[in-house]
Amino acid sequence: MSTTQGARARARIEVTAAIKDEARRQLAAEGAAKLSLRAVARELGMVSSALYRYFPSRDDLLTALIIDAYDSVGESAETAHAEVVDAGPLRRWISVCEAVRGWALAHPHEYALIYGSPVPGYVAPETTVPPAARVALLLIGIARDAHQAGALTEPPLPADLHPEAERMVADFAGDLPPGVAVALVAAWAELYGLVSFELFGQFRRVVEDRGPFFRHAVRRLGLGVGLADG
Questions:
Q1: Can you give the three-state secondary structure of 85-124, one letter per residue?
Q2: What pTM did the predictor assign?
Q3: Which residues, as ranges, make up the DNA-binding region of this protein (predicted)?
């Protein structure tokens, strides 16, 4: 790459980052539904036509922000897991869940973008799926490791859920028992329910000491998946 090309590439990276930073500021101030490319361009001192060379539409910018947010929470969870990778499955599970909560509390508007109300008129493309799956795949991996080590107990499964459980196993749970697959999906949803209740104020005057409460709740989720205590 020539010096000129390298300078252009660096400039594009810097401008793209500036656009995203301003868009995140607008998300915090106005919410995703009111995100405007014209407003972003105005705040950056750019003409709209120049900004469109980076993001052709509002939805393209939203997609970039969504992918960044999913990657950010995924990276936080993976980093936390790496620090306890030699611990027991339940400890690893709790560490991942606490990392998700910590990220959400530090990035409330980005959390709201990916786990809050849908943005009217926006349909997320397939490119958002792999980043969105990072935390879930980490939790599935913990359960799989426990299963292979003989430290996983399959939760009971009602007869009418067996067909759906078998589909889940085939779609994303690999060699895990069907009851574990169902419990994992429930735990995944409940994890984000716990975080959302805290972040969006539903725990006000209900749960005050929220850190220990969260740790206890996600520990119960791990036990419900079948992870051995300890």
A1: CCCCHHHHHHHHHHHHHHHHHHCHHHHHHHHCCCCCCCCC
A2: 0.91
A3: 36-55
